[in-house]
Design a protein that fits this description.
There is one protein chain. The protein is α+β, with helices and mostly antiparallel strands. It has two domains: 25-173, Four Helix Bundle (Hemerythrin (Met), subunit A) (Up-down Bundle), CATH 1.20.120; 183-455, paralog of FGE (formylglycine-generating enzyme), CATH 3.90.1580.10. 29% of the residues lie in helices and 13% in strands. It is built from nine helices and twelve strands. The strands form four sheets. Strands 10-9-8-11 form a four-stranded mixed β-sheet. Strands 1-4-12 form a three-stranded antiparallel β-sheet, with helices on one face. A hairpin with a 2-residue loop joins strand 5 (276-279) and strand 6 (282-287). The longest helix has 24 residues, at 25-48. The radius of gyration is 21 Å and the shape is globular.
Length: 455
């Protein structure tokens, strides 16, 4: 996401990552507490793993200093949970403007009077202590839409996790030795035995949601879409497949590129995914301070929408639309209903999807067979965000909530939709209806893609 609503691996997801419709108040409170605690643990790891000089440095003009994210997380929590839901007196109204993401672009934030690291940590901790009191005292039914089903607490947990993802991007952009470690993701099943694509049947399906309690405004409401049949890749496009495009001169051939995209790669002398470089006859990539060979069996990562679109054209295919992606990820052909996730309605578990920063990269194509859809499409959730062909637009019947700047101001042809989450996304901020969006030039995000073709 372009705005700021937004380790070794974090702890495995709790048995539940978001409440289901009709949950009891005690269960809602437990889920909200678990989500807030898990987010803060990850924030602490991302900020405690580097020294104060790294926290206050701007490692790229595309990203904020880590210390800005830390205090912004606390400030958003104060504004929404302490003041709005809890009705408590403002703790630090003097810093609201400093941490207003819409008032200050990322490139200019180092010049602001930011809280120093120790003060930022203390502020976020004090806010959290008071928020836990608010959570314990707030009725979670019939208390207004922000508190019903603990929505505001879930929204803030998602907001913090989204900033954790942006801080992980900052770690990737950071120069110097590795500050984060994590175990390798699981190996793939027999990827060679998988079909390259599957046919997704045409017909209607329910897109979006009206019942997921912590779903954000752009995921709502549920509505019917009728999709023509299409073929979809079983796995995301791998580095090996993408390397064939690179070595075939794909970056030098304007036939494959949208005009704006071709102008972009020429102006910036781009000839491969971000963080790739060629040494002799070998392609290397840098990931969180570690340089190693490009893993040809992994999904390609750090490509822009323009690069994904160009590859698809070169391959004689196209990017799926957002509606096609969601049908493949949620539609159950046996029952005709839309599920929460490709595997069903149960929350993500470590055997189904690569989420939650348990690993510091995508798993090989063909991993997580337990997470496949009924049609056999794998890795739709986790590993890499997947670019779609679609502009970021509202669902029919959209209503902004709780503020226009979360989604509405970004609607239009300037932003492209990504779906499915990545290894850097916590389960609380990833579901079959979750929508991400970004500018088509963005490459630092943890994005890849899969391709489709008409049936």
């Amino acid at each position: 996401m372009t705005t700021d609503r937004t380790t070794h691996g974090s702890a495995d997801p709790a048995p539940g990552v978001a409440p289901t419709a009709g949950a009891e108040p005690d269960e809602l409170r437990r889920r909200a507490l678990d989500a807030l605690v898990r987010a803060r643990s990850r924030t602490a790891h991302l900020t405690d793993s580097v020294d104060d000089d790294d926290l206050v440095a701007q490692h790229s003009p595309l990203m904020s200093p880590l210390v800005w994210d830390l205090a912004h997380i606390g400030n958003q929590e104060e504004q929404w949970l302490l003041r709005t839901v809890g009705g408590r007196e403002a703790l630090r109204p003097d810093i609201d403007s400093v941490y207003d993401a819409f008032e200050h672009p990322r490139a200019t934030r180092p010049s602001l009077p930011l809280l120093p690291p120790a003060e930022a940590r203390g502020y976020a901790a004090e806010v959290r202590d008071r928020v836990l009191d608010v959570l314990a005292a707030t009725p979670l039914e019939g208390a207004g839409r922000l508190a019903d089903a603990s929505f505001a607490f879930g929204m803030i947990a998602q907001h913090e996790q989204q900033h954790d993802e942006t801080m992980l991007i900052t770690h990737q952009l950071r120069k110097g030795p590795a500050a984060l470690t994590a175990p390798a993701p699981p190996a793939a099943a027999d990827a060679a035995a998988l079909p390259s694509e599957v046919l997704v049947p045409g017909g209607p399906f329910t897109m979006g949601t009206s019942t997921e309690p912590w779903a954000l405004d752009n995921e709502r409401p549920a509505h019917q879409r009728d999709i023509a049949p299409f073929h979809l890749d079983v796995t995301p496009v791998t580095c090996g497949a993408y390397l064939a495009f690179v070595e075939d001169g794909g970056y030098r051939d304007p036939r494959w590129w949208a005009p704006d995209g071709y102008e972009q790669i020429q102006r910036h002398h781009i000839g491969a995914p971000l963080f790739w470089r060629r040494e002799g006859d070998q392609w290397l990539r840098r990931r969180f301070g570690v340089l190693g060979p490009v893993a040809t069996d992994e999904p390609v990562l750090h490509v822009s929408w323009y690069e994904a679109d160009a590859y698809a054209r070169w391959a004689g295919r196209r990017l799926p639309t957002e509606a096609e992606w969601e049908k493949a990820a949620r539609h159950d052909p046996a029952t005709g209903r839309s599920r929460r996730f490709p595997w069903g309605d149960a929350d993500p578990t470590p055997d189904r999807a690569n989420l939650g920063q348990r690993h510091l990269g995508p798993a090989p194509a063909g991993a997580y067979p337990a997470g496949a859809s009924p049609l056999g499409v794998g890795q739709l959730i986790g590993d890499v965000w997947e670019w779609t062909a679609s502009d970021f637009l509202p669902h029919p019947g959209f209503t902004a909530f709780p503020y226009r700047e979360y989604s509405e101001v970004f609607f239009g042809p300037g932003h492209k939709v990504l779906r499915g989450g990545s290894f850097a996304v916590d389960p609380v901020a990833c579901r079959g209806t979750f929508r991400n969006w970004d500018l088509p030039v963005r490459r630092q995000i943890f994005a890849g893609f899969r391709t489709a073709r008409d049936a």
